[in-house]
Amino acid sequence: MSVTAVIFIAFVVLLFMGAPITLSLGAAAMGGMIVSGQPLEGLVEVAYTSVNSFPIMALPAFILSGALMESAGISRRLVAVAESLAGPFIGGMAASTILSCLFFGAISGSGPATTAAVGMLMIPAMMRHGYKRGYAGAVTSSSGGLGVVIPPSIPMVIYGVTASQSIADLFIAGFIPGVMLAVGLMAMNYIRSRQNNYQGDGTTISANKVLWTMKEGFWALLAPVIILGGIYTGFFTPTEAAIVSIFYTLFVGIFIYGEIRISGVMKALENTTWITGRVLIIMFTALAFGQLLTINKIPDLIAQGLLDLTGNLYLIWALIIFFLLFMGMFMETLATIMLVTPVLLPVMVSLGVDPIHFGVVLVCCCEIGFATPPLGENMFIASGVAKATLEEISLNALPFVFVSVLVVFLIAYFPGLTLWLPNFFGSLFG
Question: Are 238 and 152 in contact (CB under 8 A)?
Fold first, then answer.
């Protein structure tokens, strides 16, 4: 049996048996190495190589920063700003949730973290204003994924390391697509809220209230400006920005808001350790799996197969987007990125697609995967907070998934939407 057959058969069989993705990838890689006669000691080298990278240091730092911001009171103040802006309008509470996810995503870099932080505040608030549990959970799980598109983004760090691309350029490129996704979700929310008669919060929009919440949340709103502004102007690298964000959060939480406690810091450290450990294990096994695929020229075979099927770039984009959406239903985001990047990136580059553009489309597809069953991490979090069944949330999430897919196609077919901002900053500060 060929090495390729062993890799794929072992991987698929283990997945269908319900094995964790890490075990499936690692066991398949080991099987391929045994059949090909390579020493298993090579896995140790792969494990070391996968984490021995300066950019990857940004990963635990951004995770810790996002975890600390909830204890520091930053997330609560961001939600208050969003609620003052959107609350009075039709579907305003749900629109506030989307805006809150947009704001918090500009700090946390994680879809599940954004869903949890915003959901704990906004899902009960929506239910108090007459929203059904399933709808409140669907809005939160669908918009929580904005945390991985709006910079800084943990999946973009992983893609940048995997594809050897500039993480700063990826962060900049994700801004416009992230805002487009948020606008699409808010438009769909308005339509669905009119159909379900979800009114505003009963107040009229007040400039004084907006200004007051912005004043109260000034230091919270300043966080993404400092973090992203430093990256875009070249003052510090994304990894250095992650460290700056930790110290900024601690400073604001201790000396300005006075809300950080030792217990909150310990909980944040515990969550960071657990999430980082899980991510690094996935990176190690996925990298070993990907290297075997490359050695056996699987990416070349897939590229040739796609080109034999059609030479139309738009059709190839459509096939890849639907493939990524399907993958996102069953696989974790980071595993998907680590697996498909070495396989699909060479195909798209050979067709003239910019690697930064491909990376943003890939991450946007993964963003949708957070709100699609059966895996849908955000849906499980929202389900627990809203005390709604996954079936209820899934049904209500379908319109939001539909509009997100439309936005992804726009981003894929019009590369200027992604590349204009990096090119602008490149000419400005280059």
Answer: yes
User: Residue 315: how many CA atoms within 13 Å on its side-chain side?
Assistant: 7
Report which of residues 192 and 203 the model is more confident about.
Answer: 192
Query: Would you say 267 and 142 are in contact if contact means Cβ atoms under 8 Å apart?
Result: no
Q: Please report, for residues 222, 228, 384, 416, the alpha-carbon distance to residue 292 in angstroms, rounded to integers and kept in the order given.
A: 45, 36, 39, 35
110 with 63: CB under 8 angstroms? yes
Give Cα 339 to chain centroid, integer Å. 16
Instruction: Using the CB atoms, write b or e for 35-65: b if 16+ within 10 Å.
Output: beebeeeebeebbeebbeeebbbbbbbbbbb
CA 148 to each of CA 110, 177, 203, 324: distance values in angstroms, whole numbers, following the listed order:
5, 11, 32, 15
Note the pLDDT of residue 237. 78
What number of other Cβ atoms are within 10 A of residue 142's Cβ? Answer: 34
Give pLDDT, residue 183: 94
Contact status, residue 419 vs residue 356, Cβ threshold 8 Å: yes
Provide the 10 A C-beta neighbour count for residue 307: 13
Give the whole-number percent of the chain exceeding pLDDT 70.
Answer: 92
Please, which pLDDT band fits residue 182 given cuts at 50, 70 and 90? very high
Q: Which residue has the tokens 């209820």?
A: 392
Asked whether the whole model's pTM tops 0.85, one would answer no
Helices within 197-312 (DSSP H only): 207-216, 218-232, 238-251, 262-295, 298-309
Nearest to 102 by CA among 151, 63, 65, 61: 151
Instruction: Note the Cα 52 to chain centre separation in Å.
Output: 23
| C-alpha to C-alpha distance for 98 and 95, rounded to whole angstroms | 5
Supply angle C-alpha 196, 130, 187, rounded to 5.
45
Q: Which of 174, 164, 191 is nearest to 346 (CA)?
A: 164
Cα angle 29, 303, 290; round to 5? 20
By three-state DSSP, how is residue 132 classified?
coil
